Amino acid sequence: MGLISYLRTDSTRISAEADSAARQYLAERFGEQYLGHTSQKKKDDRKIQDAHEAIRPTDITRVPENIKESLSRDQFRLYQLIWKRFTASRMAPAVYETATAKIAAKKDAPGAKEYEFTASTSKLVFNGFLAVYNPGEDEKTENVQAVRGMEPGSGLALCELKPQQHFTQPPAHYTEASLVKTMEELGIGRPSTYAPTITTILARHYVAKEEKNLYMTELGEVVNQMMKSSFPSIVDVHFTATMEELLDQVGEGDVDWKTIVRNFYPDLDAAVQVAEEEVQKVKIEDEVTDVLCENCGRNMVIKYGPHGRFLACPGFPECRNTKPYLEKIGVACPKCGKDLVMKKTRKGRKYYGCENNPDCDFMSWQKPVEKRCPNCGGYMVVKGNKIACADAACGYVESRKKEE
To answer: In the Cβ-directed half-sphere of 326, how many Cα atoms lie within 13 Å?
Structure first.
């Protein structure tokens, strides 16, 4: 049974049949006051693959909790997300009652300047779509009564002054999710191309992924600068969106594809010829390690191959010795005391094992840390923003320090 509609679309259009079924379901379950006055928003046609309507449940009456037993964990979480967002989009907006207090503060001295501070709070009056989908469930609403209890002209006593200075922070590193969001906003690619794009830049080592963040590598910086200097029109963020629009016009029969190629190819060919003559061959210096080659005694270096980094003897071609590169994480093995290293399965999933494998069979999907569990003495692992005892029966958990 198909639970959702076509999943490779970024359209926001909903069919009249689906909208009618949703309104009937919401009226029966929540009441008429929860029905939203929805209208089809007109987005930029260049960014919409509108041959199919928006991703939605095929039947809104199939509540995620009712079919949970028939789905895998990932299938259930995905279906729940789609069901909640679609259902919420058909509902009335939430209504808040806000209260704001403006506080005048002036130093008790001649000629002192008066400052104005603002305190505000909000109270949920009608939950609307939040009854189904609430991304801010942990939102704090303390000091509601304190603000509402103030009267105009009343005096306030200064209890504490915190002289803090805030500086502008640099933009956060991209994650896969934020990169997809940015590409979507710029009209780069289609939903079906987002995952292959990220997979390609990771496989070619233009970026490296640590935890959830994407970091540009030295190779990525060199290639990026080279492309920007040699092919500025192609690597422009608007190029792909414009090309997508032209190809859509070709598909609709409004533009001849030969015209597009005839206008584009000569400039590309000229730029490639100039680049072949002017761009020098880029060589990334090998990183020397403290691992000694068993054959000749030289310090082995880190090289990049189709499947990632590996160790190779710098004496090539006289010495052809190679071995897998195992990145140490700075934690001792709980079983034998040797270093733990990060490894990957054939499908690319990270895990952590002992460098003394196969003599030591220690293995963990979560990253171990140096600290031992204060309850049972076992090793602890990283779980998001917390570290927890690897023994589920122990259950000890604590927050990670910010510097970690």
So the answer is: 16
Q: Which two tokens stand for residue 94?
A: 């939430």
Cβ-contact 352, 364 below 8 angstroms: yes
In terms of Cβ atoms closer than 10 Å to its own Cβ (0-12, 13-18, 19+), residue 112 is exposed
User: Which DSSP category does 8 fall into?
Assistant: S
Helices (H), ranges, 232-357: 237-251, 257-278
Query: String of b and e for 9-44 (b: at least 16 CB within 10 Å)?
Result: bbeeebeeebbebbbebbeeebeeebbbeeeeeeee
Quick check: 387 and 380 in contact, CB under 8 A?
yes
Average per-residue pLDDT in the chain?
83
State the angle between helix axes of 176-186 and 191-203 in degrees (0 to 180), rounded to the nearest 10.
130
Tens digits of per-residue pLDDT, 24-82? 999 999 999 999 876 655 545 445 445 688 899 999 999 999 999 999 999 999 999 99
Contacts of 182 (CB under 8 A, 6+ apart): 174
- β-strand partners of 311: 302, 323
- Provide the token pair at 10: 């970024």
Three-state DSSP state, 339: strand
Active site residues: 6
Q: Specify the pLDDT at position 21.
A: 94
Fold exhibited by the domain 176-278: Topoisomerase I; domain 2 (1.10.460)
Query: Residue holding tokens 């970091």?
Result: 215
C-beta of residue 391 within 8 angstroms of C-beta of residue 375: no
16-89 matches 176-278 in fold: no
pLDDT at 283: 66
pTM value?
0.53
Which of 105, 123, 122 is closest to 114 using CA atoms? 105
The CATH T-level fold of domain 16-89 is: Topoisomerase I; domain 4 (1.10.290)
Give the start-to-end residue ranges of the domains of the chain: 16-89, 95-148, 176-278, 287-369, 370-404
Q: Which residues contact 395 (CB under 8 A, 6 or more apart)?
A: 388, 389
